[in-house]
Amino acid sequence: MRLSPLIARLCACTVLMTGCGQLNLSTDDVLDDVKGGAEQVKEGASDALGDLSDSFDEALDAANDYIEGPQLEQRRHHCDRDKGTWVERVEISPCRDGEATLNFDGAEEVQRCGSGEGGVQTFQCMFRDAQGRAYFNDGPSTPPSLQTLSGLHQDLDLGRWAELFWDAAVNHDYCYHHNGITRQLSQRDCDVQMLQDLSAVCAAPQVQAISWFEEDTCRRHAALAYLSVRAYGEDNFVVQNTEVNYPLYQPMQEKLGLSPQDIDGRIQQEADKMLESWDPRGLL
Question: For residue 260, which of 11, 12, 32, 212 sits 20 to 30 Å off, Cα-Cα?
Fold first, then answer.
């Protein structure tokens, strides 16, 4: 940092002890110069914060590009494959007198509810249960900006890992939307259930046999997904709690033919390590 002329002169006199003569400095002179130096420091800090803000904005722009591009295309593909109905916008009213109104691209229906503050969900794949009630999911949706800021973007193809974790993410969506009234599960129950599913995926021999699979990356991705729902999940969990008989949850452990001893228990440890590095609540 460049010193102001007056401070530089004072420093020279102090170090060299020669050629200074009478400085004839008043208190006001010193205070004014110190104030000027403080303003320089403030401006430098402001510039540094501006640079940091620009970098953060670039990360968020990249995240939005991903949401609007490959992730959206992947959701549509899964919805078509699973014979669902693609919905651009779902508006959910607050739960009042045991009922909530859901609006799917302009088509309304009423569902019984136990709670729910209401909200809006976009780009969802919708299905209907045997009673004709709608339920929906958007697959894996860990904020890509978290992926970027955590450094995972350097060694992670988001699309192919999302494929591996798709069923676990769908289970988690349904758990958040309906399990409070349907099966009396809490947010933490849903999050732990997802962690167990992700752990099973990372531990499955048929997954580990994939040519590009890397166990440490799998654990980091799974830990980040779990971390994000623990940090941000409450806002989504309180939106909707409506009664729907969606397909009965089957743990990924059972789907993959694993025993409890096969499950990778290190993902929780990985999440704890990430928490020590940064606080995700302060990122978005």
Answer: 212
Higher pLDDT, 20 or 227: 227
E strands in the chain = 85-92, 99-104, 107-115, 119-128, 134-137, 241-242
Count CA within 13 A, CB hemisphere, residue 238: 4
- Model's pTM, two decimal places? 0.69
Q: Which of 129, 104, 100 is nearest to 113 (CA)?
A: 100
The DSSP code for 69 is I
Q: How far is CA 159 from CA 19, 107, 267, 268, in A?
A: 70, 31, 20, 23
- Taking the C-alpha atoms of residue 240 and residue 260, their distance in angstroms, rounded to an integer, is 32
- CA-based nearest residue to 98, from 80, 116, 83: 116
Residue 129 has pLDDT above 90, yes or no: yes
List of residues 6+ apart from 176 with CB closer than 8 A: 187, 190, 233, 236, 237, 240
121, 129, 119: which is closest to 105 by C-alpha? 121
